[in-house]
Design goal:
The protein is built from twelve helices and nine strands. It folds into two domains: about 100 residues, Phosphorylase Kinase, domain 1 (2-Layer Sandwich), CATH 3.30.200; about 240 residues, Alpha-Beta Complex (Aminoglycoside 3'-phosphotransferase, Chain: A, domain 2), CATH 3.90.1200. It is globular, with a radius of gyration of 21 Å.
């Protein structure tokens, strides 16, 4: 990243910042820095998203051809044009290795509800699902010129994520490759799960709409008090996927009554039968949380970031509870128990 070129492009002349702070990292290959240029500067405070060398690549597996524009810029522009609050882009300096963004502060939804009374949590999550319903309505069908329209959460991608669990969850945590009969049984169940998930009703999918990717920018719980970030992996996929990401993320524990209230609120706003939506919700919970648990191990062992390890068992607990409501997936439950007895036995 060429800081001097970025600062000169931002202001039209060379300018030194008053402070430059690198923010705590996450699972992304991107790095973030908060910069304060001091009184009189416009903008005064910004966040710089430092891009990796392969900036057009995704941190997650995606389908479709490589994009011609940075997906963060493409998807963000479409969301903003449809009234969804995202960080404003002060400067797209991709040639210098960065994008300069509006500074939305440090308060995520996860931080806002941490330790909060249940009613406070309830109001914020109803606001978050209201915003989600608005985003899904606004972005469906996905505009043809948006990169998200070219990428699909198809059977192959859903299945790849399940193999991510098998490799980094069952095998890495279990001490080695599965025995061939156990692997074959698990593969057959995963094939069926991926096929059924891919056949669900489709919609615009943010792909990681959860409490750490919603910034609180207002005092009172409402859609206007939330901004959406980390949307660069958006694609077309199961319509319930983002709802699962929100209510079954690994960082906030919601009681079942609150989850059901939020699911029903989303169903009303989208005109979907709530009973059908609950079935879709449990199915995608199994797929998503298996992937999450494996992904967190991968992030530790491959990327050298152990900060997500505390959420591995939380993710697998979400899978177990969803399977209890899916008796038709007893074969999958048995296959998981054979492959990963420590967690599903």
């Amino acid at each position: 990243m060429d800081r001097q070129a970025i600062f000169a492009s931002l202001f039209g002349f060379p300018r030194e910042p008053q402070s430059f702070e690198t923010l705590a990292g996450d699972a992304s290959s991107r790095r973030y820095h908060r910069v304060d240029f001091g009184p009189g500067a416009d903008p005064r405070r910004v966040v710089i998203m430092e891009l990796p060398a392969d900036a057009l690549a995704s941190d997650e597996a995606v389908s479709g051809a490589p994009p011609s524009e940075l997906p963060f810029l493409d998807v963000g522009r479409h969301l903003a044009s449809r009234g969804i609050r995202v960080p404003a882009v002060h400067l797209a300096a991709v040639e210098h290795g960065a994008v300069v963004l509006e500074d939305l502060g440090d308060t995520t939804l996860a931080r806002r509800v941490a330790g909060a009374p249940r009613e406070t949590m309830r109001r914020w999550y109803l606001a978050a699902v209201d915003l989600l319903a608005r985003m899904h309505r606004a972005m469906w069908p996905v505009p043809r010129e948006c990169v998200a329209a070219t990428r699909r959460f198809d059977c192959g991608l859903l299945r790849w994520e399940l193999d991510h669990y098998r490799e980094w969850g069952a095998e890495a945590l279990g001490g080695g490759p599965l025995d061939p009969p156990v692997r074959a049984r698990l593969d057959a169940e995963f094939d069926a799960l991926a096929a059924d998930a891919a056949a669900l009703s489709a919609g615009f999918v943010h792909r990681d709409y959860q409490s750490r990717n919603l910034m609180v920018i207002g005092d009172e719980p409402s859609p206007a008090s939330l901004a959406v970030i980390d949307f660069q992996d958006a694609l077309v996929g199961p319509r319930v996927y983002d709802l699962v990401a929100l209510l079954n993320d690994s960082y906030v524990e919601l009681d079942d009554d609150l989850k059901q209230e939020v699911i029903e609120s989303y169903a009303r706003k989208r005109g979907i039968d709530a009973a059908i939506l609950r079935g879709e919700f449990d199915l995608i919970t199994v797929q998503r949380k298996l992937k999450d648990g494996g992904r967190f191990v991968f992030i530790d062992r491959v990327k050298g970031n152990p900060s997500f390890l505390p959420f591995v068992e939380t993710s697998f607990g979400r899978v177990r509870r969803a399977l209890e409501r899916l008796p038709e997936r007893d074969g999958l439950r048995a296959a998981l128990a054979a492959a990963d007895p420590a967690r599903f036995g």
